[in-house]
Amino acid sequence: MSGAGYDLALDQAAEALSAAKRVLVLSGAGISAESGVPTFREAQTGLWARYSPADLASPEAFAKDPERVWAWYHWRRSLIARGGPNAGHHALTEMANLKSLQIVTQNVDGLHQAAGSRRVAELHGNIWRERCSACDFHRLVPMAEAEGDGLVRCPDCGALLRPAIVWFGEMLPATALAAADEALAAADCVIVVGTSNQIYPAAALVDRAVAGRAPVVEINPEDTPVSRRVTHRLAAPASRALPALVAHLTT
Ligand code: BV8
Ligand code: ZN
User: Fold this and answer.
1) How many angstroms does the Cα of residue 119 sit away from the middle of ligand 2?
2) What is the rounded CA–CA span in Å between residue 106 and residue 205?
3) Which of 17, 112, 129, 168 could form a disulfide with 164 if both were Cys (CB 3.0 to 4.6 A apart)?
4) 3.40.50.12780, 1.20.1250.20, 3.30.70.2190, 3.30.1600.10: which CATH number matches 38-83+126-165?
């Protein structure tokens, strides 16, 4: 987006945001891209180039080759821990000091919470959470222990632990969906950041937002299926647009 076009869109988006009381943020992999965490759109890098996420992020893949799936998650954990939250995540923590803010994320990296965000509903689970495939054991692994490797077994019953993540073909957690519904109904401004809006039912929230009353601000360097239907489009990276929006709120 050219300078003048971007500045105008930013002013208008900031207007809508400053008039709002309850803000809903729908975030996707793009907000973590600048933390060095590859998005799903980008070809998988290096060792994983020959796999598509859907080949690894499914119960079938885990049943067939749990070692490979765990190796992929250990690799992603190390990237997340190395990159840490970026200016986009931190801007949302600041925005929550100025507005009632609910984040509903498709991301499993835990970087919103690492930046200090407290109201985060995780539609697809969390890569740092593990649960037993046979009993109800579960635990949260600290990001500092990212250097794990190999299979992870349940300390209670010895069965395999799996990442507490929603794989393709699996149901989304009812609690996160309920929080998303509530926030969507209450929001008087919606920010959609870093998602290509291709994965359902998460993408249905964006469809409902653009069909709703509240103004929708999209932050994404690329066009997406909803770009023509949002109220304000900021064609810029999250780490640039989100701090700029917060700066407008505080001046
Ligand atoms: C379900 C956890 C059914 C895993 C994820 C056919 C066959 C099988 C299933 C389906 C099918 N058709 C539809 C389905 C349903 C399927 C689906 O939607 N498939 C797609 C492929 C069509 N959905 C499911 O399977 C869901 N479950 O439907 O269950 C059911 C129903 C009833 C009862 C029982 C079962 C579960 C989906 C969840 C899958 N798990 N994650 C893991 O992470 O390992 S999905 C995963 O991919 C992410 O969580 C995320 O949701 C998604 C990636 O999307 P994005 O976040 O948008 O990221 P993407 O890379 O696509 O885009 C990045 C964007 O950022 C881009 O636009 C880019 O321009 C932008 N960007 C880049 N840099 C920046 C930036 N933006 C801002 N700043 C930057 N710097
Ligand atoms: Zn167990």
Assistant:
1) 29
2) 11
3) 129
4) 3.30.1600.10
Angle between helix 87-98 and helix 238-250 axes, rounded to 10 deg = 30
Which ligand lies nearest the alpha carbon of 137?
2
Q: Considering 124, 138, 232, 248, which one is annotated as catalytic?
A: 124
Tell me, using a 6 A CB cutoff, whether residue 43 lines ligand 1: no
Q: Could you report the per-residue pLDDT of 199-213, keeping only the tens digit for each? A: 999 999 999 999 999
Q: What is the pLDDT of residues 89-132, one digit of tens each?
A: 999 999 999 999 999 999 999 999 999 999 999 999 999 999 99
Does ligand 1 have an atom closer than 6 angstroms to the CB of 106?
A: yes
Peptide bond into 53 cis (omega under 30): no
Residue where the block lists tokens 């964006």: 206
Neighbours of 189 (CB within 10 A): 24
Tell me whether residue 124 is one of the annotated catalytic residues. Answer: yes
* pTM (whole model) above 0.85: yes
Maximum Cα–Cα distance across the chain: 61
Percentage of the chain exceeding pLDDT 90? 87
59 lines ligand 1 (CB under 6 A): no
Dihedral sign (CA 172, 104, 238, 83):
negative
